[in-house]
Amino acid sequence: MPIVNDQSTQCPECLYKFALHEIDTGNRREFLFCGRCGYDWKLITIRDRKTGEFKRKNDGSYIYRSYKKPAFGAFKIQKQGHALFASITKPIDYSIIQEFKEMLSSRDIILAKSYLTGYNNVSKQIEFVFGNVNSMS
């Protein structure tokens, strides 16, 4: 079944214009990820554990579950041929910065295309960027 990707969706958290929005029509899943602030949202159609069929309400409509993680920042580690994008799941502290620096020390990392952002979800502002901000777009 088709998967539709759109990399020009505006993030509802930080308003970045290039969040990744993906719709998996076969598995009835949808997600939105922002590589700037780390916003991470998923909408999943619930399946019956015994039959594997999608669950429905009495009116015939599907049953969905939505998951949203608070945004604390994001990182990108660029390697030759692929990249790892991820959201930060807690407020950034010294240990997260050190862990990111250790990941960058690997020989196969492309530093010019890797970054870490810190996002304040109260003020809705990027507080810092470590790495190359131009690699976000």
Explain this structure.
8% of the residues lie in helices and 40% in strands. It has 137 residues and is mostly beta strands. It has two domains: 3-69, no CATH class; 74-136, no CATH class. It has a five-stranded antiparallel β-sheet, with no helix packed on it. A four-stranded antiparallel β-sheet has the order 7-6-8-9, with helices on one face. Strand 3 (29-33) and strand 4 (40-45) form a beta hairpin. It starts with a strand and ends in a 6-residue tail after the last strand.
* Helix count from the secondary structure assignment: 1
The string of secondary-structure elements, in order, is EEEEEEEHEE
Low-confidence spans: pLDDT under 50, at least 5 residues? none
Indicate the proportion of strand residues: 35-45%
Return the structural class: mainly beta
Helix proportion: under 10%
N/C terminus separation: 28 Å
Short description:
By secondary structure, this protein is mainly beta.
What topology does this entry show?
Layout: E1 3-9, E2 19-24, E3 29-33, E4 40-45, E5 64-69, E6 74-79, E7 82-87, H1 94-104, E8 115-120, E9 125-131
Antiparallel strand pairs: 1-2, 2-3, 3-4, 4-5, 6-7, 6-8, 8-9
